[in-house]
């Protein structure tokens, strides 16, 4: 089983309203730790994303399935995606652009290509190439 776990810091948002009156509504009162765990890797990859407020109350608990979820960068530090299970749009405004990039990289589909190469030192090396699909 593939196991990935990250903790990043972000504000949590959810789209509120319908049609012309849609807007981002803050779910968290402040920046909160976002916990990312890979909970399944066969046949598809499922990430569980959770967040707790300062009172240790769970305020965010969603799953991202890959392939299938498109994670859209809106700015350098804000990403959002459609949650088909809860029928809503979620957004995370990360403390840094680096954290937003880490989130996208972690929750993206990665194709691994493993191959052996014969080195000039007369032994085989295992090489790993990967392509991230967002």
UniProtKB/TrEMBL annotation:
This protein's superkingdom? Eukaryota
Which residues are in the WH1 domain?
Answer: 1-114
Q: Gene3D superfamilies per the record?
A: Pleckstrin-homology domain (PH domain)/Phosphotyrosine-binding domain (PTB)
Q: Which PROSITE patterns match?
A: WH1
Protein name per its UniProtKB record: WH1 domain-containing protein
Species, as recorded: Lottia gigantea
Q: Source organism lineage?
A: Eukaryota, Metazoa, Spiralia, Lophotrochozoa, Mollusca
């Amino acid at each position: 089983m593939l196991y990935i776990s990250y903790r990043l810091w972000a504000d949590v948002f959810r789209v509120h309203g319908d049609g012309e009156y849609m807007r981002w509504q803050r779910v968290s009162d402040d920046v909160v730790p976002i916990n990312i765990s890979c909970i399944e890797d066969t046949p598809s990859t499922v990430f569980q994303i959770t967040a707790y407020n300062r009172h240790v109350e769970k305020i965010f608990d969603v799953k991202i399935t890959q392939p299938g979820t498109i994670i859209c960068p809106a700015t350098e530090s804000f990403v959002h995606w459609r949650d088909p299970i809860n029928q809503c749009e979620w957004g995370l405004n990360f403390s840094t652009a680096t954290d937003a990039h880490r989130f996208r990289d972690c929750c993206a589909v990665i194709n691994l290509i493993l191959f052996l190469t014969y080195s000039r030192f007369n032994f085989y090396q295992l090489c790993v190439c990967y392509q991230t699909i967002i």
